[in-house]
Amino acid sequence: MLYPLIRQALFTLSPEKAHYVAMDLLHTACSAKPVRQMISNSFTLKDSRLKKELFGLTFQNPVGIGAGFDKNALYLDELATLGFGFAEIGTVTPKAQAGNDKPRLFRLPKDKALINRMGFNNDGVDAIAGRLRKRKERLGVSSFIVGGNIGKNKVTANEDAWKDYEICFKELFDCVDYFVVNVSSPNTPGLRELQEKDSLLKILGNLQNINQGKAAPKPLLLKIAPDLTNEQLDDIVSLAFEVKLDGLVATNTTISRANLATPETEVTQIGAGGLSGKPVKERATDVLSYITQQTKGRVPVIASGGIFTGADAKEKFDKGASLVQVWTGFIYEGPSIAKNICSALL
Known about the structure:
3-stranded antiparallel beta sheet, alpha/beta, TIM Barrel
């Protein structure tokens, strides 16, 4: 009940600043062991019925935090304390990059939505891998699953994109539990062109060759846009079987601005970027449903897009999702979101 007041205070700050203020405060609180334990007890729902075996991994519960929230693997322990079953870091690129000019993250409260054009701002793969290795040394084996979402640098030409994905894959291989190839962000110029079958085959085929040469290959997934046509989705389904992908993430943000309650002038003023939250829910669910029908459920899907409540999550599971991820829902619903969804699933 307290969160609406906290949210009101945070919403007086710019969205990007509010994100770091909130997470840094949580980080500080969690640095004191008794406080961390108290937070964990308040926000974590431990129940063996929530456990999920997927990709050869054991998820303590099926509710994760999507890529883009903890781009630089700074807050993994804090997210675990809030009761999430897994987190996806990134998108990580080979070289550090500042991303697009600020402001680049915008709230649409009337729609319970966000628009972002971050542009893969991150510390680069070396720094992030180093951070993850230090965490592993500190914790040893952790039950909290960490995915690595990987992308290409803005300056890398599309024909050389496969090299960027290879660099990130190799560097993060020992640091993460699974990989997601991101070719679906609308905020890196030309990136979505890599969703075409030939480009994808080059990237994914190369990664799978490296992967299968390892003693213990890592699960390899692809994140797709909600704006693809059924023909494009068919290509991705056939590619998933051809390359033996372990799964798909459906979906990323949308470039559509249809049916928003926010005045059009305001939306136009914000400009380009990917829209997330409630407005993308229906389309993301349609894509999930289409994929699971086309694959007859043989390719696991992590569902993302417009998940705020237990009912939202249940709808995704009913349509064939294996796991769910939240992001925008966390901003509007607050730190109890994972616990609330887990409660509803039980």
